Request: fold
Amino acid sequence: MKTLENLKTLQPLQQLKHLDINGLIAKLPIIQGGMGVGVSMSRLAGAVACEGGVGVISAAQPGFNWDGFASNPLKTNLEALAYHITRAKEKAKDGLIGVNIMCAINHYAEYVKCAIENKADLIISGAGLPTKLPELVKGSATRIAPIVSSKKAAAVLLKMWDKKFHKTADMVVIEGPKAGGHLGFSAEDLQHELDYDREVLDILQEVSHYSERYNRTIPTVFAGGVCDRTDVDHYMGLGCAGVQVATKFVATEECDVADAYKQAYISATDDDVTIVKSPVGMPGRALNNEFIKGLLTTNSKITECSSCISGCNPKTIPYCITKALINAAVGKTSEGLVFCGAYVGRVKEIGSVKGVLQELIG
Reply:
């Protein structure tokens, strides 16, 4: 087992190995993070998978720009998700396509079923613990990967899956405190520099118990603040099998989001990033734009609700997260919520998926 004390002796990795997700092989150990609403859809996911990474579609309101969304968001979202999975797999050739499904989403089981029926290779699930996911995918070929941010969360979930379903994860995603969007940390924790490498090692050790129990490797990938090959080497040096990257893929030609969203990234510095309170009930990392600043002085009344998140009460929340994310996705960034990672300031130009992957693999 690696320790923080002996990490200085680790040499940079010369050649990245493929990523084996319980028999599904990605040529590159790089997963493109799922970003909603409308940021990581079939165009981006298909391009990443085509280049050898794992492309991921977000199940957060994929039908936001489809006819019928206002009157029947669930039906429209499921139709849109099915379309994007199919389209991405056509683009991906032999590459892998996953779907990111938040535990906090309403109708979680229906989105999982849609992903399975349309032959998604992988379901990545966070924003809570996906306690029922093994039961929902039973009998399918779709692999499952929970997102955890602490050893405690990993221990609780994997033990429960093992005891209740006699199943374990096909992959585990460790999401660190520098990630974008919704975060599995308290607002207080995010205000301090956490000794997170030690937490990564503890999670890896916890996962290794189930690798031994099920007699197969469970790859663990790290997400949050990964920008270049140096970061990749660092986390793989700790023992991770790969990395998950989101922010860097936003400013690419293939990203599905509006150009104004990409320009907001390019114009931003690390000092423009802030932590916001999300109606999901979790802190989130986003650009501190006019919309965020306006939340301190305005009290907007919510007149429409698409019932996207469980436990959301339109009468008490400060803003509608669906509306805020849609505004940003279509280019009205000053009126919307622009999620981003802590190091968005390192994004300087609009490039290509291939270029981002080349930077990551060195």
Observations:
- DSSP finds 13 helices and 13 strands in the chain.
- Residues 1 and 97 are 32 Å apart (CA to CA).
- The first helix runs from residue 42 to 50.
- The first strand starts at residue 19 and ends at 21.
